[in-house]
Design goal:
Layout lengths: L12 E8 L8 E6 L2 E5 L15 E3 L3 H8 L4 E7 L4 H4 L2 H4 L8 E3 L1 H13 L6 E3 L7 E3 L2 E7 L8 E7 L2 E6 L16 H10 L1 E7 L15 H11 L4 E4 L5 H13 L3 E5 L1 H12 L24 E5 L9 H6 L13 E4 L8 H13 L3 E4 L14 H11 L1 E7 L3 H13 L14 E6 L3 E6 L5 E3 L14 H8 L1 E8 L11 E5 L6 H16 L9 H20 L4 E8 L1
Parallel strand pairs: 3-5, 5-6, 6-7, 11-12, 12-18, 13-15, 13-16, 14-15, 16-17, 22-24
Antiparallel strand pairs: 1-2, 1-19, 2-3, 4-21, 8-9, 9-10, 10-11, 19-20, 22-23
Bound molecules: zinc ion.
Length: about 575
């Protein structure tokens, strides 16, 4: 049962298991176990692909963790969060309520974002702030400290974890930008100090390990953005990740240089900007910002709009604008939309259809080319990864937060630096690695499954709805299958409705009523379908609204759209 007892040597060991974050990049969650104590690093959400109909988000599977607490008498001694990206903090509101209480720490901006998220779900804002440079925190037998790194969200950290069995450097998402837009460089001195204290293993971000050299600095992006902004003949839209405050400041600076006004559009952009503003991280002159209702008072060429939705998310502000469904902002010929972002793997299809929708309005979509960059990755390239290895001098290496391909590239880099394959562990989620001063080896395998949650964020959703599980239990599930004509986006036949666990039964009657509702909604936009995800959402929303209005029931609606 307990693999540690079978170890040939008696040196104390630490068990490392990823519940998420290996192979699939997102939903990062890692466990470090020493004796009966468990330290958790990160608690992220995952983003599934197109094939997972009706479900939008994935969580790490915490079955193993729950069993360890309930059946094996283990104790969670703390949770630390490396940075404020959704794939590192987004799982908190779903997972914390399932666990006993323990201290949670994060850097200032990470804690602000995570606490805001918990508040939105009506949960206590329980995350405590670790300020860079503070003395280490003791959590059970673990000693933990945060080390500043450059990434694409303010106050990103790597974590140095000391245990009686050895020290670990948790090298979560990072790159080494020596001239970052916010001037806050990675703390190389601390990394070298960790090496002096001894690093048994480095768990390292490996996402950019297939790129050669170093990830370029962000410093030139501001110049490129400003040039494009100056040349725009209409409104200037720019979309980036909401949490990239440094990029936001570059956009604001360019707009101020050109005497343009800046308007923030979309719930996620506004929310994160407000948090950053409160912390003094946003640099904007008084009078630069205008509200959405004021845009019409200015000439098109005077306006810069920072818009949420760089990944083509179905319900984002940018998708609504591009589909001419936004009540305040219209995309008109001459407008420019700059993508200051990279597609997150899996979002390519959604982004392509978004770009098509923009072109249809006569506007121009602009993205990075080899010659002109509007975005630089937040992840290191092979040179950055090798530098972290050189600085921390670990005995063993475990690449994390990458696909299998990235792990293999990472292993090759490490081999070039003299590591043997026995010192590098390429693991899947649920695969334990046991590490002690004497040896490191694979341990048990725990099963980790896909755990889906219903989409919970959206432009108009202010209060988060019940979790799907709860909703399923109370109101059941409604699957609506609609055949849609690709040529004009209209229904071909009556939609079929399948109900499970619902009090409703007369599906024939519901189907007829629903057909009427859908026809009304869809006929408003008779055109060739390019964005199926968007259409699926309209069908899901209309069905949900209809069932509530007519029958006062809110089942979980899973729209299945068949293109004909
Ligand atoms: Zn990240």
């Amino acid at each position: 049962m307990n693999e540690e007892k079978k170890a040939p040597h008696n040196a104390p060991s630490v068990s490392f298991i990823a519940l998420g974050g290996e192979e699939d990049v997102t939903r990062n969650m890692y466990l470090y176990e020493y004796k009966n104590q468990i330290l958790i690093v990160d608690c992220g959400l995952g983003f599934p692909d197109e094939t997972m109909l009706g479900v939008d988000l994935l969580l790490p599977d915490i079955t193993y963790l729950l069993d360890a607490i309930r059946k094996k008498g283990k104790k969670i001694i703390g949770l630390v969060l490396t940075h404020g990206h959704e794939d590192h903090i987004g799982g908190l509101p779903f997972i914390l309520p399932q666990l006993p209480q323990f201290p949670i720490y994060a850097s200032p901006f990470t804690a602000a974002l995570a606490n805001e998220k918990l508040r939105e779900f009506g949960l206590p804002a329980s995350i405590q702030v670790f300020t860079f440079g503070d003395t280490e925190i003791s959590l059970g037998d673990f000693m933990v400290s945060f080390i500043r790194v450059t990434h694409s969200v303010p106050d990103s950290a790597n974590i140095f974890i000391k245990t009686p069995a050895g020290n670990f450097f948790h090298g979560s998402d990072f790159k080494f930008d020596l001239t970052p837009a916010d001037g806050k460089r990675s703390d190389f001195q601390r990394m070298a100090q960790c090496a002096q204290e001894g690093v048994l293993a480095l768990m390292s971000d490996c996402l950019g390990s297939d790129r050669s050299g170093h990830t370029p600095s962000e410093e030139n992006l501001g110049v490129n953005l400003e040039r494009e902004m100056r040349d725009a003949r209409g409104k200037f839209f720019v979309t980036t990740y909401s949490s990239n405050i440094a990029r936001l400041n570059q956009i604001i600076a360019a707009a101020e240089n050109l005497h343009k006004k800046v308007c923030f559009v979309g719930r996620s952009v506004i929310k994160v900007k407000q948090i950053a503003d409160r912390m003094g991280y946003v640099h904007m002159k008084a009078g630069t910002e205008i509200q959405i209702g004021e845009v019409k008072n200015f000439k098109n060429t005077q306006v810069v709009l920072v818009v949420a939705g760089s990944q083509g998310q179905e319900n984002s502000a940018l998708t609504r604008i591009a589909n001419n469904e936004h009540k305040d902002i219209k995309l008109t010929p001459g407008d420019v939309v700059v993508f200051s972002s990279d597609p997150i793997p899996g979002n390519e299809v959604a982004i392509n259809s978004l770009v098509d929708s923009i072109a249809k309005r006569g506007a121009k979509a602009v993205y990075s080319t080899a010659a002109v960059a509007f975005h630089v990755s937040g992840h290191g390239s092979s040179g950055d990864h090798m530098l972290l290895i050189a600085l921390t001098k670990p005995k063993y290496l475990v690449p994390i937060s990458g696909t299998y391909r990235h792990m293999v590239f990472y292993r090759e880099l490490a081999q070039k630096m003299g590591y043997t394959t026995k010192e590098i562990f390429l693991v899947e989620n649920g695969q334990e690695v046991l590490l002690s001063q004497q040896q490191a080896r694979l341990g048990k395998r725990v099963s980790v499954n896909n755990v889906y949650v219903d989409q919970v964020s959206g432009e108009e959703v202010e209060h988060f709805v019940v979790r799907d599980r709860e909703r399923l239990g109370k109101e059941g599930i409604a699957i609506v299958m609609a055949e849609i004509n690709t040529a004009d986006g209209q229904l071909i036949t009556k939609p079929e409705i399948i109900l499970r666990g619902s009090a409703l039964s007369d599906t024939q009657n519901i189907s007829a009523g629903l057909m009427h509702e859908l026809e009304k909604k869809l006929s408003a936009q008779k055109e060739k379908v390019t964005n199926w995800a968007h259409l699926r959402r309209i069908i899901g929303d209309t069905t949900g609204r209809y069932l509530y209005k007519k029958f006062h029931t809110r089942p979980l609606v899973l729209p299945v759209v068949i293109e004909v």
